[in-house]
Amino acid sequence: MYLTTFYNADVAVVDLSIQLQQSALFYHLGVRESFGMKENILLHNDIDTETTIRIKLSCGNYTFVSYRVVECGSCVATNPATTRITGEEVIDPKQHLTLKLKKLFQDVEVQSKAHMKEKFLADLRKARETYSGEELSKALNNMRKRLDDPNVLSGEVVLNVLISFREIQDYDAMVQLVDDLRTIPTHKNYINTPAIRNLYAFALNRRK
């Protein structure tokens, strides 16, 4: 159960500080990547600069963050490369590990939303290429339900859904989609474009 959760998590944070665990952890990270789950953050307790740099180099393209526990008990992010160059340890007590991770999580959230939108558009294209008639109508109406997720919704997505409904002449669905979005203040900006307004007017004129 734990591995399933790990493999399917939007983002995984893995601490490589214990050497005996590193091989197994890299294996499971590889399994995640084989599933297309590429958002992984690797941590390492920077006790020894050379060891930390060696671990960082072995992590390839993974996001790597080294840290150290300071006297007050807090964890702060470190920069082992700078320490190697200057020969002096440069530790900023204000650079808390939690702040560093928070920023990385925010970046992942943005990337995740972009991925979800791209996945929806890809599924929409596949449905239009694969189905026709009643089957396509059913597929489009099922995909319409996915627009309830704010991470999927965007002006581009709405435009493509409207065009798809227009292709099967489901003008009622076109009008209903725009009307539904109008009722939610935060979603109005998705329909205030000339292209979407034109499609809405077109559907109003064509529906029975």
Automatic annotation (TrEMBL):
GO terms for molecular function: ATP binding; protein serine/threonine kinase activity. Coiled coil: none annotated. Residues 25-208 form the MAP3K TRAFs-binding domain. It holds the Pfam family MAP3K_TRAF_bd. InterPro entries: MAP3K_TRAF-bd. The keyword Hydrolase does not apply. Keywords: ATP-binding, Kinase, Nucleotide-binding, Serine/threonine-protein kinase, Transferase. This is Mitogen-activated protein kinase kinase kinase 15. It comes from Apis cerana (Indian honeybee).
